[in-house]
Specification:
Layout: H1 9-40, H2 50-73, H3 81-86, E1 88-92, H4 101-126, H5 132-154, H6 161-166, E2 168-172
Antiparallel strand pairs: 1-2
Helix pairs in contact: 2-4, 4-5
Length: 182
């Protein structure tokens, strides 16, 4: 891995909080558009199955978030808005280089997998499907988040399972001559 120091829990929490502010604004705008469409069209009639609702949620919320993270983390800045403000970058774990888009996409997909799993479970439960497999999916999503946090907090390199699987690391960004993160 590069000579740069791994970004610890504090910096990654700051970065995540800032990024989730952007996601929250997007989600509120999306909710507003969805509400307007449901009141002015028959769109909601076509979304009468949990699978259809889950697919729409994935395509309009989760996929754009995954793509935002992948595009930003594979860009020349190697960081999302939150990561830039926190002074961290995502790099290839071995070479310390900029991520390719496919690697960044894999990282982001794995990172947001628990979110998608939770959405799938919630849509099923709201539709009355409270089978053991749906509850297991819901619990697994929550357990994955706990594992992500524990490995981030307790691991020496502060790498999550999605970092290990994608071959990535989050490191402190190099400082410029003015003392700012690059």
């Amino acid at each position: 891995m590069s000579e740069r120091r791994p970004a610890g829990l504090r910096l990654r929490v700051i970065a995540t909080a800032l990024d989730f502010l952007i996601i929250a604004v997007y989600a509120v705008l999306l909710f507003g558009v969805a509400t307007l469409l449901s009141q002015t069209t028959d769109l909601e009639e076509g979304l009468n199955s949990p699978l259809a609702r889950d697919l729409v949620a994935f395509l309009t919320l989760i996929l754009p978030v995954i793509l935002y993270f992948a595009l930003q983390e594979s860009s020349a800045r190697q960081a999302t808005f939150g990561k830039r403000r926190a002074g961290v970058q995502v790099v290839s774990a071995v070479e310390g280089d900029r991520l390719s888009f496919p690697r960044a996409l894999l990282r982001s997909a794995l990172k947001f997998l628990p979110w998608q799993m939770a959405h799938t479970a919630v849509f099923q439960i709201l539709a009355g499907n409270e089978s053991a497999s749906i509850w297991a999916l819901s619990i697994l999503a929550q357990l994955l988040v706990v594992v992500y946090l524990l490995t981030l907090w307790l691991g020496k390199q502060h790498r999550t399972p999605y970092d290990w699987l994608a071959g990535t690391a989050v490191v402190q960004a190099p400082r410029t001559a003015a003392g700012q993160s690059a």
